[in-house]
Amino acid sequence: MTAATTRTRTATRVNTQAEISRGTAISLAAAGTLVGLWAFASLAAAMVMTGSPVALAQAWLGAVIGA
């Protein structure tokens, strides 16, 4: 009894442009998340330092107009 062997060739094609785009999108999302977290932490620290939202607004306005 002889067994017949069949070889099949499967070629996988990777779309490198799609992979690069996916990596770019993930990098931009991560950078945006980090910037957002930094901004929130800065706002929270400013709120703690000034004591209240009204005092923060007054300090910000004073800094902007130079008073």
Short description:
By secondary structure, this protein is mainly alpha-helical. It has helices spanning 16-50, 53-65. The mean pLDDT is 88.
What average pLDDT do the residues reach?
Answer: 88
Strand runs, count = 0
Radius of gyration: 29 Å
Categorize the overall geometry.
rod-shaped
Class by SSE composition: mainly alpha
Tell me the domain tally: 1
Low-confidence stretches: none
How many helices? 2
Q: Could you give the distance between the termini?
A: 99 Å
Write the element-wise H/E pattern from the N-terminal end onward: HH
Q: Report on the biggest sheet.
A: none
Approximate strand percentage? under 5%
Instruction: Give the % helix.
Output: over 70%
What does this structure look like?
The protein is mainly α and about 70 residues long. It contains 2 helices and no strands. It has helices at about 15-50, 55-65. The longest helix has about 35 residues, at about 15-50. The relative contact order is 0.06. The model has no long low-confidence stretch (mean pLDDT about 90).
